[in-house]
Amino acid sequence: MESGDRALDDAMTAFAQSAIGGGLPSGVNALIAEAGRLRERPDEALALLQRARAAAPRHPVPLIALYRFYFYGHKLAQARAIGEDALAVARTALGSDFGEEPLAAANVTTRYDAAARFYLFTLKGLVYLNTRLGDFEEARMLLRELRRLDPEDRVGGALLSHVLDRHETGAGSDDAMDALSAYPTRGWTGTQP
Predict the structure, then answer these.
(1) Contact 32/62 with Cβ under 8 angstroms?
(2) Considering the domain boundaries, does residue 192 fall inside one?
(3) 131-134 CB contacts, 8 Å cutoff, 24+ apart
(4) Which domain of life is it from (predicted)?
(5) Burial letters for 34-53: b for 16+ Cβ neighbours within 10 Å, e otherwise?
(6) Sign of the torsion angle spanned by Cα atoms 42, 129, 87, 22
(7) Looking at the 3D structure of the chain, how many domains does it have?
(8) Residue 104: inside a domain, yes or no?
(9) What is the DSSP string of 80-91?
(10) 8 A C-beta contact, residue 8 and residue 106
(11) pLDDT (tens place) for every residue of the chain, 193 residues total
(12) CA-CA distance, 148 to 135, in Å (whole number)?
């Protein structure tokens, strides 16, 4: 195995371990747990989550905790910024060649790879956040990338195509609702690129 391949393998393994909490520096988990206990005091909880991130800036666990804090606190712009950081962390773990080809369903390595799945789910989250924030152009661009990388819709991104269509057509009106299926089928069939 070439040293570049070994380095990529090592990076992907480290990411997979970190995605389930492995490799988390001492004390970071305690900071995140304490932030969870302080959810009624958001300023204190946020300070703990920021300390956790500072202690493990390239680890997905503090990013996920911060993302959830902002998302469930209805601070969608901040959640989007954390999502963009998480996408960069996953992309670094996946290496520079990631994304040149769609993730083939037959390729078990990429199908079950923690970093690849984290990347795809983060991309899906960013589509949703951009849609909610009214940045339809960015949402559409990210959705195209998700569709290209996940042509078999393994992470359920096609549903967001329907959500985005509803937002773009003014889903509040009866005409807009009639034009769109209330119960879309799973998969990219019948969705806009």
Answers:
(1) yes
(2) no
(3) 131/160, 131/163, 131/164, 131/167, 132/76, 133/76, 133/77, 133/80, 134/167
(4) Bacteria
(5) ebeebeeeeeebbebbebbb
(6) positive
(7) 1
(8) yes
(9) HHHHHHHHHHHH
(10) no
(11) 455 556 656 655 555 555 555 678 889 999 999 999 998 999 999 999 999 999 999 899 999 999 999 999 999 999 999 999 999 998 888 888 777 776 665 555 556 778 888 899 999 999 999 999 999 999 999 999 999 888 888 888 889 988 888 877 776 555 544 444 554 556 666 566 5
(12) 20
Domain of residue 153, residue span? 3-179
- Domain of 100, CATH number, reads 1.25.40.10
Q: Which two tokens stand for residue 170?
A: 């003014």
Q: Are 105 and 154 a contacting pair, CB within 8 Å?
A: yes
The token duo for 192 is: 């806009």
Burial class of 178 by CB neighbour count within 10 A (0 to 12, 13 to 18, 19+): exposed
What are the CA-CA distances from residue 109 to residues 94, 104, 105, 186 (Å)? 12, 10, 10, 23
| Segment holding 156, helix H or strand E | none
Structural domain contains residue 84: yes
**Residue 40 structure tokens:** 């009624």
- CA-CA-CA-CA dihedral for 120, 125, 131, 133, to nearest 10: -140
